[in-house]
Amino acid sequence: MDRERDWQTTLPVQVDPKIRALYEYWNAKRGNSSYPKRADLDPLEIPKLIEHLSLVEIRSTDPRFVYRLVGTSVARALRHDPTGRPVGENARLSEREAVLARYNFVADNGCLIFHSAVLQEQTNDFTTVQRLMLPLGPPAGPPNMILSLVIKIG
Prior knowledge:
Helix content: 10-25%
Order of helices and strands: HEEHHEEE
Strand content: 15-25%
Radius of gyration: 15 Å
Mean pLDDT: 88
Shape: globular
CATH topology: Beta-Lactamase
Structural class: alpha+beta
CATH architecture: 2-Layer Sandwich
């Protein structure tokens, strides 16, 4: 990915300040790379964001995406803690493909995604959230993790 890409156009002007803060932190940590490595991130530098974060491992085997860390605010919104579980496992069946498509896009393209949507979990299909999904990985290679921040809105 070209370092000169204008990532700012991906975020709307009226985005939650925590979304913007994570984007700015991630952008600073990536330096001249397309994305930072997991080791570049220090949770102590972003303490007010930790409860809103999730970290998803990208694997070469099924399931491709597995939650490795889920913040308390995210677990509350989902109404369960999916740590160690495959992404999409608890999504409404009719929405599972769309949920996984976002993760596949970040993993396959090394691009971030921002979206605002109603959760599509079996345990919560009524909460509107803003979500920022950011790739993490080695400088020369595809992403191996996705860092996500979820903020409940409304």
